């Protein structure tokens, strides 16, 4: 990508740990799909606080396959009222398409690394 090694050495480990946009998008869309399947109608008032808390939770999510959904289980139960059946569906649905979220995470990490490198070049 043409990013300097010094920039990549800083951004790649940091972003791999805290930048999980694909996982966040996946969790929100899967949660809303399951809510619709179960007859619930998610509202902005119920989903927006969940999204904000999920953004904070994803900083601490482990970088292993399925780690994001496991970190989000408490939020799904307490904030969106998921029962055990919904949790089971959520885990299965999330794991079935986890690779797409990972692809989004990696692409976003690369874009942020390139942006940081470009900003750093302008300051030098």
What can you tell me about this protein's structure?
The protein is mostly helical. The chain contains six helices and no strands. 81% of the residues lie in helices and 0% in strands. Helix 2 (21-37) crosses helix 4 (67-80). The chain has one domain. It is found in: Membrane. The chain crosses the membrane at residues 12-38, 50-76. It is a multi-pass membrane protein.
List key phrases describing it:
Na-dicarboxylate_symporter, 0% strand, 6 helices, transport, mainly alpha, transmembrane, 124 residues, elongated, Proton/glutamate symport protein
Bulk shape? elongated
What percentage of amino acids are in beta strands?
Answer: under 5%
- The helix-strand sequence is HHHHHH
Question: What would you report as the Rg, rounded to the nearest angstrom?
Answer: 17 Å
* Distance N to C terminus: 19 Å
Mean pLDDT: 90
Number of strands: 0
Q: Number of helical segments?
A: 6
Q: How many structural units, i.e. domains?
A: 1
Largest sheet: none
The class by helix and strand makeup works out as mainly alpha
Pfam families: SDF
Keywords: Membrane, Transmembrane, Transmembrane helix, Transport
Transmembrane segments: 12-38, 50-76
Subcellular location: Membrane
